[in-house]
Amino acid sequence: MRKNKKQFNSLIIMIIIIGILPVFLFRNGYAMHLLIMSLIWAVVAASWDLVLGYAGIFNLGQLAFFAIGAYVSSILTINFGMSPWAGLVIAGIAAGGLGILVGLPCLKLKGIYIALMTLAFYEVVGPLIIVGRPIGTGGKGGLFPVPAFRIGNYLFNSNELVPWLYLTLIFFGVFMFAIYKMINSTFGVAFTALRDNENLAKGLGINKFVYSLLLSGAASFITGVMGAFYAHYVSMISPRMLGLDSFLFLLIMVILGGAGNFPGAAIGAFAVTFLNDALRPLDTWRLLVLGLLLVLLIMKFPKGIIGTLFDLFNRIMKKLPFIKQEM
Predict the structure, then answer these.
(1) Beta bridge partners of 194
(2) φ and ψ at residue 143, rounded to 5 degrees
(3) Residue 155, strand partner residues
(4) Could you tell me which of 238, 41, 214, 230 has the C-alpha nearest to residue 125?
(5) For the whole model, what pTM was predicted?
(6) Burial 176-206 (b: 16+ CB within 10 A, else e)
(7) Which residues contact 13 (CB under 8 A, 6 or more apart)?
(8) How far is Cα 28 from Cα 149, in angstroms, rounded to an integer?
């Protein structure tokens, strides 16, 4: 219960701090853009952590659902004149449905075999987008311009980033709270039990088939919606969004925050987004630096920096006399 309260408080503090930041960054458009991108990637990283960290399913294809959501919504709005809001919902449903379909064969696999299959799915999506030009994917050139959101007569545009920031913050808050509720519900206990001791969980009546598919569908839906949101924000998408650099950034976000340590992945997303921007002068060496960072994190901080800090905080608190008396 104490851990749940700590998770909830961390999430609320994050939302409050981000909500106040526009007051200080009002004139710094680039910093606002990085903050918006951090919020988008934070939700994607947290949804992947739901599968990878809490359920222990080695799904390496989560980024593919991000691209699928982006392309589905973009195609519907550009080629069929659909509202971006409707496109976003349909994109989430499409990504969630594919997540369930990909999850079906994975139920018969374990460990590295799940990783290989989902990685193969991730590798296939890019070429399919390129050869899918006749159906409106835009091929290698991608799609541009992707229509922005509209509320009544107000059209969100790239010249006014404050409205974009608060809209992104709403999506961040809704999905992060949904992930928090999933983790700390009977549903969350079930898939965590399947991760820790599958045989015991099955003996207690937990249906692996049902819970695994529901989890895959939920995580893919959230990722797909944020992929669609990303497309309407940046107004341009291409197969490059499935590049190795994006995959590596997302993986580092989860590991840096600490897999299975909510909201660590979201915090890791902010750190990696700003770190990646700071390393841009290194050009191609940037990936090498991030790759070395990934190896260092796995070797020295298996719980992630956020998880390590939480453990350090708990050890300090336990050494305080008044804490011992309460315990």
Answers:
(1) none
(2) -125, 135
(3) 150
(4) 238
(5) 0.91
(6) bebbbebbbeeebebbbbbeeeeeebeeeeb
(7) none
(8) 22
